[in-house]
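[retry 2/3] Outer membrane protein HofF: previous attempt timed out, resubmitting with same input.
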Amino acid sequence: MKKVVLLSKSLVAYLGLLSQASSMDWKHFDLRQLEQFAKFKAGVESFSKIGFNNKPINTNKGLYPTETFVTIVGYLQMDLPEIMPKAARANGHHMSGSLGGFGGGLLYDGTKDTINQVTGKPYGSMAWNYFGYWGGLVGQKPWAQCWYGAGGGSQASYAGKSAAQLQAMSNATSIGGVNTADCVQGYANNTRNYVIYNAYIDYSYKNIFRFRGGRYESPADYMSGYTQGLDMTLNLNHFKFWWFSCFGRGFAYNEWLYNFYSPKTYTLADGKKINPGVHAFYITWEYKGFSVVPFVYFSPNNEYSPCFTLMYDSNPKFKGIGWRSQTDITVLNPFYAKRFWDTYQFGMISHRNAHSLMIKQRFDYNNYNFGGGIYQNFGNANWMIGYHGSRLGFDFWDNTVYANTINSLSYMMDSNAFTAFLFGGGVYKKWLWGLIGRLTYGPRADEQVFAFNLGYEFSKRFYADIKVEYYNQIMRHGYKIGWNGPFLPDQPATDQDRSHIFTEIKVKL
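[retry 2/3] Outer membrane protein HofF: success.
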């Protein structure tokens, strides 16, 4: 927050200098003068997820419902489209900035009274996983010192355990001496339902160099949401060089609201947690629709991921008329720090390194599109890089909030899981529609999903959409939701309904 305040003061100070240069009379300043160089945005939005499976929780059997919740949010943003003097602009220098705040609350939380049949008591509210999570920048807050998911840790720690012992460990309702329900409720009682999501300066020189710093919506494929950090771009003929550094991640959307937190942490020998950040470096070569993009993501003492993307675009200047074909092949190759080798991460064993392959093909014809692809994991490839973002182009956070004991991540991100998907959509006048179907086959779970989305733009200020999704999930023998440790020989397979409806309403003021 100190960085945001300093950046905001810098914006005000710079505007003051510009105003002096243009002889603006601040003694008689009013909003109309400010609107000469600033643009304001404000709005109110609401999101709802309605789960069809409303059965009670049974932590011993690994049975969980699909959550229902409703949000209401509002935002106010001031954009400075151009704050460079006219003489500087004439020489190719441009600078813009923005300052925006976002906040809201839950109109309904269907998770807070859900009973755990094992204890006969409420499991605890879980809506904070979507809306309001806050444990401190590096998870240093007292309530963030516990976790409610059983299992995890090193593979060696389970050596010699019998099937009955493993099953008993998976049934635990007290972890590390803390009752699971109390741990869950601790997060729910300490939410932070607001965030300064925009506070940045964006400088560019012609089409050669660009620097952006502060808080802004992340442009990184594998760091979605809003970032707190910087990125720089250098264009040289057919080459583009791009650097990205993130020291905080946040969400400011009608479904997701997180104040900024460190996406990766590291604990020093003295027990102090630090924020090493997540960094990326891209080199892009483009020629006649072909793109070759080697890139690397890394977080010191956590991971190092050399990756690459190959793309072909048959019509790079496509503007909704005619035919276009786009091919995207992306490979991730994360290498993990030694302390993560042979440990359970997101319920699957993780070794020294892993890989994932995405092949995606999209076709556009006028206002319509269709295509498909595959996503194959070789080892546990997504728990460090893949779950922060993706080039897939569709939502894979549509599982139950209890899945993997982290948000609602689909099991398509599991170790060695294979997914095939097809999609289509288009725009007709003020109607927007889309559909997607996917089949996932994994060691832990199989999933069958079909979703249809329909949106309508009533006016420039009012938009609404709805998504109806059929989602069947088959947990294989030996695995259960809520358990992040090794295979359980005594755990039977389960078939659970994850179908739901999303609705969204957006009003611009």
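[retry 2/3] Outer membrane protein HofF: The CA atoms of residues 66 and 400 lie 5 Å apart.
[retry 2/3] clearing retry counter.
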